[in-house]
Amino acid sequence: xxxxxxxxxxxxxxxxxxxxxxxxxxxxxxxxxxxxxxxxxxxxxxxxxxxxxxxxxxxxxxxxxxxxxxxxxxxxxxxxxxxxxxxxxxxxxxxxxxxxxxxxxxxxxxxxxxxxxxxxxxxxxxxxxxxxxxxxxxxxxxxxxxxxxxxxxxxxxxxxxxxxxxxxxxxxxxxxxxxxxxxxxxxxxxxxxxxxxxxxxxxxxxxxxxxxxxxxxxxxxxxxxxxxxxxxxxxxxxxxxxxxxxxxxxxxxxxxxxxxxxxxxxxxxxxxxxxxxxxxxxxxxxxxxxxxxxxxxxxxxxxxxxxxxxxxxxxxxxxxxxxxxxxxxxxxxxxxxxxxxxxxxxxxxxxxxxxxxxxxxxxxxxxxxxxxxxxxxxxxxxxxxxxxxxxxxxxxxxxxxxxxxxxxxxxxxxxxxxxxxxxxxxxxxxxxxxxxxxxxxxxxxxx
Amino acid sequence: xxxxxxxxxxxxxxxxxxxxxxxxxxxxxxxxxxxxxxxxxxxxxxxxxxxxxxxxxxxxxxxxxxxxxxxxxxxxxxxxxxxxxxxxxxxxxxxxxxxxxxxxxxxxxxxxxxxxxxxxxxxxxxxxxxxxxxxxxxxxxxxxxxxxxxxxxxxxxxxxxxxxxxxxxxxxxxxxxxxxxxxxxxxxxxxxxxxxxxxxxxxxxxxxxxxxxxxxxxxxxxxxxxxxxxxxxxxxxxxxxxxxxxxxxxxxxxxxxxxxxxxxxxxxxxxxxxxxxxxxxxxxxxxxxxxxxxxxxxxxxxxxxxxxxxxxxxxxxxxxxxxxxxxxxxxxxxxxxxxxxxxxxxxxxxxxxxxxxxxxxxxxxxxxxxxxxxxxxxxxxxxxxxxxxxxxxxxxxxxxxxxxxxxxxxxxxxxxxxxxxxxxxxxxxxxxxxxxxxxxxxxxxxxxxxxxxxxxxxxxxxxxxxxxxxxxxxxxxxxxxxxxxxxxx
Amino acid sequence: xxxxxxxxxxxxxxxxxxxxxxxxxxxxxxxxxxxxxxxxxxxxxxxxxxxxxxxxxxxxxxxxxxxxxxxxxxxxxxxxxxxxxxxxxxxxxxxxxxxxxxxxxxxxxxxxxxxxxxxxxxxxxxxx
Lengths: 447, 489, 128
What we know:
A: 7-stranded mixed sheet; B: alpha/beta; 7-stranded mixed sheet
């Protein structure tokens, strides 16, 4: 359908090549198995394809039909119209990796600005051009720490309240590296200081999440000091929206900061494509995997940008490269760049506070329902744990019958927390939505 | 022309968006954790839009001109795919919603798995991997897990041809395997003698790209796969070049056990300036239990009155999770739209025309540009950009000169086994007129290389920028906008 | 291409000058020419460290390649050329002089036997 040649074109071209028919182009392929008949339908028109896809999409239920308090690593935030308007510029989305900088300054400058924004947001010296998502960014932090010590340190201290999917990803990535990963079986309800006694001279990296998977905010000073006392690296995984309100990880002397960039103007889109934020201190820049854009000048004296420090990467180092990554999330990184440019300093501060206030209102209201409880002294950002009188699974099932997505059932991953529900509240949740969930709970769970 | 950065456009107290005032009482802020300084730019919406629109125009893209970048398959990206991926029923669903509320999305993923399996001859496919390199890591970990599950823990050697992408050895190394490089034979195929010599009980497998990175169908592929299998190894296929094989030959029929697809190459999803891609992995039945978690399965087929029912499962011996959630779903929707639009007849047209176009250019330039392997090519080919009577001209100079003709240069210096390589992949979506214009430019540049080499050294002259100083960039290492101390406070 | 006659050479394009029980290590003119503009030198050892023959001790990077430099002999690092951190381009300008990388106190002099003299090194077959 997207092949433009006429029959006359094809005949003229085959003649130039010196073969009679299209099939002859494949004469060096084994005869057996050549030109298989695919058990697939024939093509359809654009109108029919749109119709089909519209039907399939209509089978799903979106936050327009359901009230959603679901977070746990992906969040429903407002996306300013200008973000998608820029993403639809096909000069951006139909370009490839900027290998020819003379005709790719749009992409290169966007990457450079993305790096600048992420460095500013995290308080770190440098950020790379991104990883696939939060999970793979965290896995690359482990990879970087492992290589930083040239494989001589083999222990990773991992917080039990790092997102469980990220922890699984670390285990998969590190299958071949023979690492000892400790800390995950600690009591998840305790804070990061529990990790301190596990840190020793064989520890390459200590990883925590901030706010953690339960939405809680902890002081990371002690665990950071304990890591550095053993010359281990310290890595903090963030929610970027929280950085509008909270001290950045640089104030806890983090060596690596990772994050899931999805809240920065990227649709939830059933889990991807998202954006892996990755930033570090200047001294580790050559240990960091992933693409980097750097400033330079052209032959005419213009300021411009190129991909730099390529020698760390797989296309030059091959099996000696730290990581095999050979792309970045280009267009998704651009979305976050436009988003952060639009919000700017005051917009991000305003948004972070809005999330904070709404979440605290929701927590307070839910606590008034008999049997439901939220820890009243623990600081949190826009997500919090609700203790339920029955299992979180039952609460979720009940709420769904009222068209409400209640939250994330922590019992799925933490067997001891089967009565704990993780609830996320963003600027998209109005006070009336919150009140409605509370009313529904009250009706069902009154004394 | 120097473009300002977004930081340089900032003026205090400007805003690009406003949010509604809180409709709830204000809570006490966590005073021990408050941030003091947030050095982000402050720019109004129209300036933000103008800034990014202006810099976008400095790019060459598929929508602005021909992009024959070898091994990247820069085909046209149909616009309907952009619309379907943005349907609210796809773009607004949360990945952790109960499966009963996302049956459409799961059904679409299941169908995509089935289409990829049918096209390639595999049993099923996982849509989890985020990119080609990520698919490689997944596939190599599957090979490792397969050997381990049989107690065959001594198999640590992965063979990688010298023509392979750098990601192949890097992915194997990340999986903890040892890499042995296999030189190609004089026809650009896997050297069977060298392969035989490496076949022993430490062999984990062979990573192979077919058509290979020279754009040639490996004539020894079936024998090579047999050799590896006879010696207890498995064959990994790099599917970077699947655009030559749709309806032409199924990789599983060659003897490949696990292969990654590049949805952003073969299945027309946009490259996005470097991502996001998507690298699903297809496997034989024997390896299906090792696929990453989660996998979409159909639990009930459905009938005239009841729809089919889908669920997410973790395969029995799964290597685990390779990223969060369910893969690059937005990219998968685009690829699915493309596949059903084309159907089996359209898919066959893609590959036959991709191969036709590459051979057409090859035939027209081969008298002037040396082609190291004199065969019909598949969807791309490699030339050596050097002549004895044009000393001092390198592949890079030819590339930069092509920019002056409005073309994106081919891939330079890859594969590594061809000196001064230029790798040309026109794709199936280009007209004969475009191909002819490109050939005319290539021939003119070859003349200039001998008679007027300065014009090549000074190129490009018509691009928005001249050649950029990569040495300065690497030495000075300016990796972010330099801000004054008090910016943002 | 210079190949001073008073030095020993390895097949990885390193040169070695013997000074009593110490050796001085650098990379050859051929190596720097192949790498082109050198932008970064990372010395992986500290003074006083002991490394085995064949271990990677230095990484030299240009914009297009990175080269590992291997220990030619087993021994203790007695000096490191700190000036290369700020002026890596010295390797392009003066590979056999000011751009030495490390000084090593040899543990076993017989390890020098495997190295080449200038004539043999000059006549090595090159792929490129």
